[in-house]
Amino acid sequence: MTSPIGLIQQVALGDQVADALRRLIVSGELAAGTRLVEIPLAEQFGVSRGPIREAFVRLESEGLLTTGRRGAFVVGMTDDDINELYSLRETIEQFAVGLIVAKRDQLDWPRLEAAVARMREAAEAGDHQEFSRADIGFHSAIYELAGHRRLLDVWRSYEKTFEVVLDQSGRRGLDLLVGADDHAQLLEQLRHAPEAEVHQAVATHLENAHRRMIGRFGPARLPE
User: Fold this and answer.
1) What are the tens digits of pLDDT across the range 150-160?
2) pLDDT tens-digit series, residues 57-112
3) Is the separation of the CB atoms in 74 and 30 below 8 Å?
4) What pLDDT score was predicted for residue 53?
């Protein structure tokens, strides 16, 4: 019988393998249609087959892999996927900010301030990957402060995907200091602006991010 500590270690390793494979898939280094085989991957990552299976489950739930009797295959990322991700994100993020506006006086705003500070530090250092982590940390804090557990669960399902997408494509050619300023402004609107203005600000923020992604992941899939 596997011990609780062993299970925790396996899940942690599975997350690490999923992180590595996610980056390879989103970057295109693992092309759509590539078959992933457990034993060679386990040898490559220096783990047992358990963490590989854990990673496959996670990546399939994110829509990056498909598994079946013939094994696991890379689905890849296209403009269709970006459109779906951002339409979902706008729906849930608008809900989250509505919950936040309704209880502004009760919230821990320093959490969002700290995320903006991390973004500024990363921008000044020219660190795109850390900037993306801080960006996602800012938006994750929004979902956490909204205080809706199941809404947070939906965001968590795609949080890592958004982080990798941002890092792989959306930051290249973008002035990171401008990006940090945009988030600082969004924070002030969350804290003080009328609700309608907050919703419009979030819509514009996500629309701009969405637009930067289109065309970077290959053509949309044709209807079957």
Assistant:
1) 999 999 999 99
2) 999 999 999 988 888 999 988 889 999 999 999 999 999 999 999 999 999 999 99
3) yes
4) 92
Strands (E), the chain: 35-36, 65-68, 71-74
**How many degrees, rounded to 5, is the angle at CA 155 between CA 148 and CA 127?**
125
Q: Are 87 and 209 in contact (CB under 8 A)?
A: no
The sign of the torsion formed by the CA atoms of 154, 157, 161, 167 equals positive
Tokens standing for 113? 């301030």
Phi, psi of 171 (to 5 degrees): -95, -15
* Nearest CA among 27, 92, 14 for reference residue 60: 14
Cβ neighbour number for residue 98 with a 10 Å cutoff: 14
In three-state secondary structure terms, 223 is: coil
Would you say 16 and 9 are in contact if contact means Cβ atoms under 8 Å apart? no
pTM tops 0.70, yes or no:
yes
Listed residue (178, 206, 204, 202) closest to 119, CA to CA: 178
What is the CA angle 144-214-201, rounded to 5? 45
Both tokens of residue 100?
């936040």
Contacts of 8 (CB under 8 A, 6+ apart): none
DSSP one-letter code for 36: E
pLDDT tens, residue by residue, 162-209: 988 888 765 556 788 999 999 999 999 999 999 999 999 999 999 998
Q: 64, 80, 68: which is closest to 22 by C-alpha?
A: 64
DSSP string, 54-84: HHHHHHHHTTSEEEETTEEEE----HHHHHH
